[in-house]
Amino acid sequence: MDPLFKCFTAVWLVDFEFIALPGHRPQPVCMVAKELRSQRVLRIWEDDLVNMKHAPFPTDKSSLYVAYFATAELDCHLALGWGLPVALLDLYPRFRNETNGLRPIDGNSLIAALQRYGISEFCQEHKDHMRTRILQGGPWTQEEQREVLDYCESDVIALEQLLPHLAPKNPKTLGQSLHHGLYLHTVSKMQHRGIPVDTESLDILKSELPSIRQQLVRQIDVRYEVYDGLVFKTGWFENLIKRMGISAWPRTESGMPSLEDDVFHEMAIMYPYLAPLYELRGTLRHLRNIKLAIGPDGRNRTLLSPFRAVTSRNQPSNAEFIFGPVKWIRGFIKPDPGMSLIYADWGGQEVGIAAVLSRDGKMQEAYLSTDLYLTVAIMAGMVPKGATKETHKAVRNIFKTVLLGLNYGMSSQTLALRIGKTECEACSLIDKIKRLFPRYFRWTQDVLNYAYMHNMIWTHLGWTRHIEPNPRPNSIQNFPMQATGADILRHSCILMDQAGINLIAPIHDAVLVEAPTVKMDDVAEETKQLMVKGGADILDGFPLKVDVKRVDAPGRYMDDRGREMWDIVWSIIGVNPDKIK
Amino acid sequence: MAKSADKVNDTTVDDNKIVYVNPNNAEPEAPAEQGHELPPEVAGVLNDPISIEKITVTDFTSLATSTKIIMNIPADKPRKHTYFRVHPDPGMQIDTYILENPEDKEKPYLVAPALRADLFSEILLVRFYTTIDRQGKIGLLKVRLPGDDGRWYSSHQERDLAANIAMGSWIRLVWNSGSYEILKAGGDLGDPVWPNMTLHQLINIVFRDRYITNIDHPMIRALRGLE
Predict the structure, then answer these.
(1) Looking at the domain assignment, is residue B190 inside a domain?
(2) Domain range holding B211?
(3) Which of A91, A171, A187, A484 is the most exposed place for a label (fewest CB within 10 A)?
(4) Which residues contact B197 (CB under 8 A, 6 or more apart)?
(5) Could you give the percent of chain A with pLDDT greater than 70?
(6) Residue B59 and residue A175: Cβ atoms within 8 Å?
């Protein structure tokens, strides 16, 4: 037994088997738990589990609960109406943290973790076979029940073998892991609650899919003439970019314009004329088969996959998560009667974090001004004092692009394309910013130097990136901002959860919160304060800015970037989605 | 209900029908004594409200400070497109003798005082001013000083004038039809940030491998047609 665990009266290794249909809450099938000191093992089948009012072991902070990818276990706790274990050690983020950046060949599954540490008696094929059987559900023969319990127990044994390799090495790391555990509470609660979806209008959309796709193309492609029926013709697209005078469109090895989603997205930002075409392509792809995971209660639920990104940000399935696909789909988010939602995000979070981490006082001052981008434009002498968003919108947008781009080392070439200027002008702009914030730029060099010298970098809360061979410098330079942003989101979610705020989704650097309309004024204010505190706790007291957007029933959430497509889709269907009874 | 209760070795069933198994007959460890205190790092996280003060780690970038190593310093004049300033401190100027490098004007040879009499007809008396450009790159501006007769080379007199202007303004020095044009920057480019280096250190870098201390130096021998 690890001496570090002596502060706990018990250490429980826990695994559940369950059935999880898309959008549904999980249905536990069985649980096996083993206490490390006494070697006691609990093997409990579903019909006993559902009769238990709480877990059959202590879940207060005196007892440590160990699992792998613990949101599955926590989801089962919530489905059973059990309390969540306060002291939770999930070995999945521990494994991610140990290998983050090194891209383990076999991924990050329990089997992959076992293999990495030379524990090889576990068989993926057997695991797949058992998972398939479990997903088929009952009725179960006694033999099958024992097999499933044995299988579940084998995962607990695996946990026991893995624990010495992944156990935190000191109290600080243990504290960080338990902080991760508390965040997983919030993730599980979000997965449990789900996001309210206007299923009536979604059903209408689904029933109209075949004709919508055709008509969408007809309506939008008029401007571009790149579709033949529903087929995007690359040759015709080549003509379009020629007509537009775009010579710098990235190309594939065969010389054709690259149509990768990332490339198209980037180019649509540079050439806003192409933005509807980009949105159309995504929409057609999405409308081919809408895979949003909606439960029988009309709520969108999917695995939020915490810690999956290198930066440790959540990485839910793009197809299943309503914030994943094209922006206009978010219009289906609609609070239930009497309820309200807020979308609260940190404004310019990455610049604020960069200013604090680099200790660049001038950048901090600019961030805290009323309008960061205009302030920097004024500091650079590009607009007069007193300029406003209305009077100098174009310059403001340029500075927004520059500041956000420089965090990940945007080149002068890309910047030139983005802002529609010559490369020389882009260089000059970068030069100006470098002069304004020399401390920040020295710091970005320090980040690279440290990474190259020591092969690892980390955040204040210990999220580590190991440096792989031939790393991309831009990605290393951007890591401290993104990963610190993830730390801040996690910590803020914990604070909000402890304050009783109903979080229903994390979205990159934002959260979606649900509350009864009559209480939403207070909830929105408290959410904002706790998000500011969450950032300040990690950034030495620096107050990141938080913006809140609210929607009350019967209204619907709408992302401004998706409004045009939303309106086009419903005009094609010929129905006002807000008047469906 | 624990349906596999009677089929598993070493299995007992308690009153709540939960199966307790000790499959390997492993020796249970003594239960932990009550009262082991949670370390402050753990207690802070598990308290409500949470405190993360004790679990933050040192910022790696505070350990990463690097020093820029200046490898090369050109010693002729800034390029024609480069705005530059000259260090106003006379301690950052030096008058000395050099031997010009026919291969590369920016890389002259410094001649040791003991050899100057022997090389009198080949060496030049010059003044080096310390310069800095907009990217913070350090250089030397070379100005050939008048000989014993007090006569200037006109282009070098213009360089000297430029150096004096550049002590207070950002300028460019552009050769145009037989003379230099001195172009002052139109905007306020701010003050330069000079590196914390002495002239002695700069000179050591400039002439690190171009310091002639011996009459048999290959450069001298080549000049005299001995090689």
Answers:
(1) yes
(2) 75-223
(3) A171
(4) B70, B138
(5) 100
(6) no
- B29 vs A1: CB contact, 8 Å cut-off? yes
Q: What pLDDT sits at residue A374?
A: 93
Cis preceding-peptide flag for A554 (omega within 30 of 0): yes
Q: Is residue A175 less than 8 Å (CB to CB) from chain B?
A: yes
* Mean pLDDT, residues A146-172: 95
- Read out DSSP for A157-206? HHHHHHHHHHS-SSHHHHHHHHHHHHHHHHHHHHHHH-EEB-HHHHHHHH
The closest CB to that of A172, out of B30, B57, B60, belongs to B57
With beta carbons under 8 A apart, name residues in chain A contacting B7.
142, 146
The string of pLDDT tens digits covering residues A342-382 is 999 999 899 999 999 999 999 999 999 999 999 999 998 88
Q: Is the pLDDT reported for residue A474 higher than 90?
A: no
If you average pLDDT over every residue of chain A, what do you get?
A: 92
Ranges A181-195, B88-102, B142-156, most confident = A181-195
For chains A and B, count residue pairs whose Cβ atoms are closer than 8 Å.
155
In a domain, residue B165? The reply is yes
User: What structural domains and CATH numbers belong to chain A?
Assistant: 3-195 (3.30.420.10), 201-287 (no CATH), 361-436 (no CATH)
Is residue B22 situated within a structural domain? no
pLDDT at B65: 62
Nearest-angstrom CA–CA distance, A145 and A137: 11
Compute the Cα dihedral for A249, A255, A257, A262 and give only its sign: negative
Q: Which of residues 438-477 of A touch B (CB under 8 A)?
A: 438, 443, 445-447, 449-450, 453-454, 457-458, 460-462
Q: How many CB atoms lie within 10 A of CB B100?
A: 18
